[in-house]
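hey can u check if this looks right to u? its 156 residues, i copy pasted from the old doc so theres a chance i mangled smth
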Amino acid sequence: MDIAAQPDLDHPQTTLLLTRTFAAPRALLFKLWTQPEHIVRWWGCAETGEVDFTNDLRVGGEFTAVMQLSNGHTHRISGVYCKIEAPERLVFTWSWENTDGFQGGETLVTVTFEEKDGQTELTLRHESFATEDACAAHGEGWGASLDRLGEFVATL
């Protein structure tokens, strides 16, 4: 699995761009990103234990992820699907809050799945963060999630 992280040229401090290559067909990766029974197996930062995920997979449909962290904190993420182009692309809004009452502003996530040499290159673009720190923190979280996704794909 390859990893590359690079800033967005227009908004380098508030846009996250991650690219990973997985040894799996893109239809499978798209399924792992859209079906709750699979998402709960890989979603979350390094400290994530249990995940509860529900979604209404349609444009305008909502999703909610509740992550129980090892430190006892809970993070709740919610959003709305803006575009669903199976198996090429998902676009959704992203809002989160934690048990301390902190609420992050709404941001936008675009995930693309491109077949390359019998593998799938996944590109995640998460944009419109209010601060550089928020962008960096989400980079760590998404990096851990993608690591977990790679481990899950390896078991299939």
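Residues 4 and 19 are 5 Å apart (CA to CA).
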